[in-house]
Amino acid sequence: MKIKFTAVISILIAAAIALAMFAGCGKAPEAETDTTTSTEAEQPNLFTKGVWMGSIDGKADTYFIFTDESNGRTEKADGTGGAPFTCEQHGLDVVFHFGSADDVTNAKFDLGNNTGTFDYGENKVTYEFAFVDDADPDNFEIPEDAEPAGNLFTKGVWSASIDGKIDTYFIFEDEANGRTERADGTGGTPFTCEQNGLDIVFHFGSADDVTNAKFSLGDNTGTFEYGDETVVYTFEAVQDADPDNFEIPA
After folding, report:
1. Fewer CB near the last or first residue (10 Å), C or N of the chain?
2. pTM of the full predicted structure?
3. Residues 42-66: pLDDT tens digits?
4. Residue 101 and residue 248: Cα distance in Å, rounded?
């Protein structure tokens, strides 16, 4: 990973020096003063077309994918989705609109430590930003070797598909407990689990069952070892689903 903010720092320093030199010059004759010209130095945009990784406590949390200086999308590093955005850049201050123009999320960036602090209303989140070398924002996919910032699954509902068709729903009551429901309505099984990054051990039905699962964030898959059978599911978060009252969609 290469920090791209270094180039921005150089540009801002150059702009500051130019402004200082301008301020130090003698006042121009009154007749030649152009009162319509702003003396404020225009700050360059922090983000252009490209991909940046936002990390929390040293682990990838969210990718910010800019298709140009005003538009882009996010992708969660744990593969649970993202949101399109537009933004207005004002030097170190950027206003994001996630999902729609009605959302207003203010972000303040610090070039000294390459961080961005986002004000998400009820909470503030500080990410450490790093430029993702050679990433194509038009076709970006989460790297297969990416590690989640925390546990892969928290409270929520995920669909697990085989060959493009939903087979099973995984309903997590918290990070260690939950149940499955078959998409065809033929029942499910309670489970407990131990999460270790991309490796999760499930205990379906009882603690005596040991089912190892290996996840990949690059293609959002989970490979489950069910004894003599290996099953690969494609996982997708079910938006706005309530795990306490989840029912299979009709």
Report:
1. C
2. 0.53
3. 678 999 999 999 998 878 889 999 9
4. 32
